[in-house]
Amino acid sequence: VSACARSVIVVAIACIAPGCDVRRALHPPDPDFNRMLVQPKGQPYEATRAFENGAVMRAPPSGAIPFGGRQETRPPLSVALLTQGRERYEILCAACHGVTGEGTSVVATKMQHRPPPSFLEARLTAYSAEEIHRVVVEGFGLMRSYATDLDPSEMWAVAEYVKALQFSRHAQVASLPPDVRRRLEAVAP
Ligand code: HEC
User: Fold this and answer.
1) Ligand 1 centre and the CA of 149: distance in Å?
2) Which of 61-70, 75-84, 138-147, 169-178 has the lowest mean pLDDT?
3) Are 98 and 121 in contact (CB under 8 A)?
4) Ligand 1 centroid – CA 44 distance (Å)
5) CA distance 136 to 155
6) Which residues have CB under 8 Å from 154's CB, separation 6+?
7) Atom 30 in ligand 1: which residue has the minimum CA distance?
């Protein structure tokens, strides 16, 4: 038998082998599986016969925070908010950024790569509270996010406090409320 004929025989045997048996695939599907199309089952979002309360997904408990996004309710600016921002800033941020926000801290002097910038740099005084808030939520460059350390409203409080720190260094005496101005002039005429 020639080599060519031998390979023809090998191929022919392979096709008779069980792997090539297509008869099973031609059987009609098991009638038991048809019930899966009609049996009572829960739909994630649609109300179905099977579930009295409607859809399978339960309504989120009140106050639940959607995964991947916190509630974005921005609290109104107030003295109480700034006081809270200062308290959180001094605990969480000042270790690196310094109590006055100028980036002077022991930790900063030990940073080998990029130390924290001064919040008084023109690039950062131009930041709005929203932009500072985004740095707190997402982190920036080498700085991590602080979203797991602060409540949603505290993140706004800290951002507003950073704006207040910046403003405190450039405030014009003429822009102060009259009573504050009188008190200032009493100590520094
Ligand atoms: C462990 C040290 C550390 C702490 C704590 C820290 N930061 Fe930072 N922060 C940095 C460093 C370092 C940078 C510069 C990152 C870079 O440029 O890669 C930075 C940058 C920033 C910037 C400037 C981002 C920009 O666009 O240039 C802001 C704003 C800021 N931090 C706010 C905060 C606030 C608010 C907190 C507290 C919630 C905080 N940081 C806590 C180290 C820290």
Assistant:
1) 14
2) 61-70
3) no
4) 42
5) 7
6) 84, 85, 88
7) 135
Dihedral sign for Cα atoms in the order 76, 79, 82, 84: negative
Residues with CB under 6 A from ligand 1: 92-93, 95-97, 107, 114-117, 124, 132, 135-136, 140-143, 146, 158, 162
What are the φ and ψ backbone dihedral angles of 121, each rounded to 5 degrees?
A: -60, 145
Residue 115's Cβ-side half-sphere holds a number of Cα atoms within 13 Å equal to 20
- Provide long-range contacts, Cβ within 8 A and 24+ apart, for 6-14: none
Q: 10 Å Cβ neighbour count for 110?
A: 8
**What confidence tier does 154 reach under pLDDT thresholds 50, 70, 90?**
very high
For 81-124, the pLDDT digits (tens) are 999 999 999 999 999 999 999 999 999 999 999 999 999 999 99
